[in-house]
Design goal:
The protein has 42 residues and is of the alpha+beta class. 45% of the residues lie in helices and 17% in strands. Strand 1 and strand 2 form a beta hairpin. The chain is globular, with a radius of gyration of 10 Å.
Length: 42
């Protein structure tokens, strides 16, 4: 995969790949505001 985790809740990769990866692994994104903030800077 082109997703690399660089911290407890930080991921580097293409937005669509990250979101589908989180869905596929069954993770619940609790820090949605933080995620949205990061996505907005890409």
């Amino acid at each position: 995969k082109d997703i690399r985790q660089i911290g407890p809740d930080m991921f580097v990769g293409k937005v669509d790949q990250i979101l589908s990866g989180l869905r596929n692994s069954g993770w619940i994104v609790i820090k949605r505001e933080l995620l949205a903030e990061k996505l907005a800077t890409w």
